[in-house]
Every structure is written in C-alpha cells, then in structure tokens.
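Model: You mentioned two targets. I'll fold them one after the other.
Researcher: Yes, keep them separate.
Model: Target one:
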Amino acid sequence: MTHKPEPTVPVALTDEQWRERLDPLEYAVLRQAGTEPAFSGRFVSHRKVGIYSCRGCGAELFRSETKFDSHCGWPSFFSPLAGEKVIERTDTSHGMTRVEVLCANCGSHLGHVFSGEGYNTPTDLRYCINSVCLTFEAADAPSD
C-alpha cells in the first residue's frame, strides 16, 4: 500500500488512541485504508430514514435520501451531506487510480467515489462506503 500523508483535520488522535477507540476491523479500514468484504456490512441493504455518521468521530456524513442500491456489495450514496464533510484525494494503491473518500473531521478512510458508471442518480456519482466506517441514527429513534 502506498503511504499517503494524513490530511490536517480537527480531530487528530494518536495511533494508540485510535487503537483503543476502534475494534480491529474498524481500525484496519478507518485508519489503514482497508476494505471490509463485499456484502458483509450491516448497511448494504439498510433502508431506514436517517443520518449516517463517521464511526471514528461521529461527524454526520450522508443522508439516507442519497443512499441507493448499486449492487456493488457496499453501501452507496450519490452525494455526501455537504461537500465539506468529506475529503476526496487520488489513491494509486493496488495498481489503479481511484478517488479515496475520507472523513473531513478526523481523516478516517471511508471508501472511494466513482463517476460515470451510468446509475440513474442526480449526480452520476457513487460514494462506495464501508459499513464498518458508519453509524446510523434513525430520524425517529436514538443511535443504532
């Protein structure tokens, strides 16, 4: 994996603090840019109305209204809550060029964004986000 400098973000914890805060899979994905296995995450087929937030820091990232079924194995959204909620940067790991998506509040890896795939969405973007990177708060209930 190509080492990329961490972005400057408001929530900056030490590696030890992240390891204490996250379980091993969460740490591998959020802090080491790993990927959970396809179709294994709890939010792949999730249909409740509410807000998806960063598991690392709690920052609100995506609304359920922008989630769509892309059949790719990970939750897909056509837009973040707001442009400043995520950082997008070039990722040249694994012999390909993609656009990595990070939480703008804590710098945690969330997944990747793809464009031009032909999905019938308003933006023609697919934010492919690991479930393990997210928490969910239903519009009519406390956090889950």
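Model: Target two:
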Amino acid sequence: MYHLKLCRGRSYCNAAGTVKATRQQPNVYTADKATADAAVASGFFKLVEEQKVPDFLPDWEQKTATLPPAGEVLGHLDREQLEDMTVVELRALAADMGVDIKGCKDKASIIAAIAAEKVSAPAITVEELAELSLEELTAFAEKNGISLEGVPTTKEDVLEAICVANGGSYTMLDLMRE
C-alpha cells in the first residue's frame, strides 16, 4: 500500500481516474506501485509511506485498503474539540499537520479542513494506558514523540499528557478517576 499526499496544485486527477486528490482531501492510497510511481513522477504528489498490504485480504480489498502505520488506527480529529480552539491555535495545528488552509477564510472552514484530514493515533485505549506503569508510560511517550518536558513525574500527569497529545482531553481522565 502506498500513501501519497498532494503537495502541489489545488487538485489532481490522473487520466485513468484512479488517483484523485484536492487540497481538502490530499491523501491518496493505492496498492499499485506503477500508479504510485507515476503520481510521484508527476510532481504533484510525495510518497508519505509504503506499507505491505496483508496477504489475507481478497484481491479487490488489497487494491482499495487504507491501512494506518503498524500499531495505529486511522481517524479524524473531533470537530467539537476543534471548536474550542482559537483561530490562531487552529492555524498552528493545521501547519503542524501539513493541512493547507490558504483558501479558508473563517474558523468553520479551517475546522472543516483539519477535520477532513485523516490522522493516525496509537491503537491503545485510555483504559489500557491507565494499566501501564509510570516507566511504561514514559517509554510509550518517548516512542510516540510525545514531549513530557515540564510534566510532573507522576503516573497520572504523564497519562494526562499522553491523552491530551493524542487528541484526548482532561475530561476523559476525570471520568476514569471517578
């Protein structure tokens, strides 16, 4: 499976119609190496990731499967949480995610662009994280690029930092504490 991302232009569609992308939906997934190579050679796409499609999938699914990195799940950021952010925070988030928001004129359109972007997150629940020791949580944060700088070294605080970094909220943790 080849994950491609539109990096030039407002939209793109190849002659066969098998590779389509827009600024709002820049990600393309294909199982065909020739299609991926041609899209990258066009200059409109960059290769984000190459991942082997499991052999147990039927042929038709191997060509259409969208697979996240190993140990992660695909999803979208929650619009309600994005609503709580300021426009400045949203612009910074979009820049961090590589989401093009140049045509977005208001907060709602920025939120729509960010929420449309597929994101991957560790395939672990808050409950599973809560069962880990402080050392395991610290190792998990390091492995997943989550900074714990300035975070007190209690299990609860590290767990909270990991949940927030993965799009969770303090509310999730408050519910767990009850």
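Researcher: Noted. Anything on target two?
Model: Confidence is low (pLDDT under 50) at residues 60-67, 170-178.
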